[in-house]
Amino acid sequence: MNRPLLTRAATIAATVAAITLGEALQTYSDGDVVRWIEEPTSGAEPEHPAPVLKLAKKDAATPAAAPVALAATSNDSVKDSNNGTAYGIAGILLGLAGLVAGLLAYRRAAQAR
């Protein structure tokens, strides 16, 4: 059967209880290195446990988290919405004025020779 990769990954993830993510090294400014590689055994947590990702099957009775609507902030007012456009137009006009002034100065310097 040729199922899509995502479906196969979801099937595999649903059957695995915990996955060790690998070795994590923590280096301090004084040069000490702590290796977070110890695997938990018999319920006792080691001093430097390896990072573990625990997966659980989705229960049909457990509802999915509802999306949270973002509240409007005080900065979202209508009068503030056009400031970017006004500053953009002012910047373009000042740039054009600078270009004209530069070209006029260039022409005057060329005529003075």
Overview of this structure, please?
With 113 residues, the chain is α+β, with helices and mostly antiparallel strands. Helices cover 35% and strands 12% of the residues. The strands form two sheets. It has a two-stranded antiparallel sheet. A hairpin with a 5-residue loop joins strand 2 and strand 3. The longest helix is centred in the last third of the chain and has 29 residues, at 83-111. The protein is elongated. It starts with a helix and ends with a helix. The model is unreliable at 1-6 (pLDDT under 50).
The end-to-end span amounts to 84 Å
| DSSP summary, beta strand count | 4
Q: Mind describing the biggest β-sheet?
A: 2 strands, antiparallel
As a percent range, the share of strand residues is 5-15%
Biggest sheet: strand arrangement: 1-4
Taking all Cα atoms into account, the compactness measure Rg is: 32 Å
Structural class: alpha+beta
Tally of alpha and pi helices: 2
Pattern of helices and strands:
HEEEEH
Mean pLDDT equals 74
User: Any low-confidence stretches, pLDDT <50, length ≥5?
Assistant: 1-6
What general form does the structure show? elongated
> Percent of residues in helical segments?
25-40%
Layout: helices, strands, pairs:
Layout lengths: L4 H11 L2 E3 L3 E4 L5 E4 L15 E3 L28 H29 L2
Summary, kept brief:
This protein has helices at 5-15, 83-111, and strands spanning 18-20, 24-27, 33-36, 52-54.
Keyword list:
113 residues, alpha+beta, two-stranded antiparallel ribbon, 4 strands, disordered N terminus
